[in-house]
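sorry for the late reply, my laptop died twice this morning and i had to redo everyting from scratch. anyway the thing you sent over, i finally got around to it. pasting the sequence first so we're on the same page, its 261 residues, then the predicted structure underneath. double check i copied it right bc i was rushing
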Amino acid sequence: MIPDFMIRAALAGLGVVVAAGPLGSFVVWRRMAYFGDATAHASLLGVALALGLGVNLLGGVLAVAVLMALGLAAMSGRGIGADTALGVMAHGALAAGLVGLSLFSGRAVNIETYLFGDILAVRWADLAWIWIGALTVLGVVAWRWQAWLTATLSPDLAASEGIDPRREQMLLTITLAIVVAVAIKVVGALLITAMLIVPAAAARSLSRTPEAMAAGASAAGAVAVIGGLWMAWELNSPAGPSIVCAAVVLFALSRLRQLPG
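ok and here's the structure:
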């Protein structure tokens, strides 16, 4: 019989990958891997602020993500390269977040939980928030799908059709922050970028349409979640990293199919 905590863990992981699949496809298409990584790192500062101010964790992560996007736009307009600006803001926010979390000694804050996740400790209340966040992300992606595709293909074409590429970029950033917020307890801030990128990269070589890639990314993520949890159960390994390892194996298998002969 499957233990109750494993069922909750599986449902939590599936909730994350359902949202991360299509969103991760845009991260791959737009080559935003570094930006996704920066958002994940900055989320720790959002967690620290949420704990310090006693507000909802999602609100803290969203606030930091939006501020980071605005700061990036401001720094990029002053002759600073986007990669440099991202590096400064991401690592600065990560350091500030770790310092902030360490100050909550009286509240028994486990920093490793936010760094690497603790999917096996997910409660039913956590599960509800994860799926609310995942369904919200899916709703936004469905709403802005065509606009995001057009802006990804050609910002000039998007502008000619009345689509503001900067506005769509900001909305994509906020949606990305929601995924990070709901996933931080599952795989942690240091591994969420992998769950955005690796399943999408695995599905890319096997898909012929954007819609197929988005669906394939979610499917690959689901297989990685189940496979990673099985690995963690059998080997007594950490669940979050095990899920990422399973996703990497799927990516390697997808690339083997592309080899000649």
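The chain has a mean pLDDT of 84.
thats about all i looked at so far, will dig more tmrw
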